[in-house]
Amino acid sequence: MNKPEGKYAWTATVGEKGQIVIPKQAREIFGIKPGDTLLLLGDAERGIAIPPKGAFAEFFSSAFQDMDGDNK
User: Fold this and answer.
1) Which residues, listed in sequence order, are joined to residue 43 by a DSSP beta bridge?
2) Is 56 exposed, middle or buried (0-12, 13-18, 19+ CB in 10 A)?
3) Low-confidence residues of the chain, pLDDT below 70?
4) 5-24 exposure pattern, b = at least 16 Cβ within 10 A, e = fewer
5) Which residues are CB-contacts of 1 (< 8 A; sequence separation ≥ 6)?
6) Are 61 and 67 within 8 A, CB to CB?
7) DSSP character at residue 38
8) Quick one: DSSP state of residue 43?
9) What is the DSSP letter of 68?
10) Helices marked H in the chain — which ranges?
């Protein structure tokens, strides 16, 4: 089966402490390094999403803009 360009799927096992290991290929593709902070978004119906690292800064930047659209 041919996969669409830029689309991936991996599996991860949850350990006894609730931790998961992100597969090496995924860490390499997305530039995830030890000590990085990842944002997990959850939806009870749709599941869990881990957006790209840069989305974390963009999310907070847009969330804290004032009413005039200026960053402070």
Assistant:
1) 47
2) middle
3) 1, 56, 59, 66-72
4) eeeeeeeeeeeeeeeeeeee
5) none
6) no
7) -
8) E
9) T
10) 24-30, 53-63
Element spanning 41, H or E: strand 41-43
**Closest to 27 (Cα-Cα) out of 17, 36, 18:** 36
Cα 61 from Cα 71, distance rounded (Å): 7
Cβ burial of 32 (10 Å; 0-12, 13-18, 19+) is middle
Displacement of CA 7 from its chain's centroid (Å): 15
Residue reference for tokens 């009413």: 67
**Pair 33, 11: CB distance under 8 Å:** no
For Cα atoms 43, 60, 26, give the angle at the middle one, nearest 5 degrees. 60
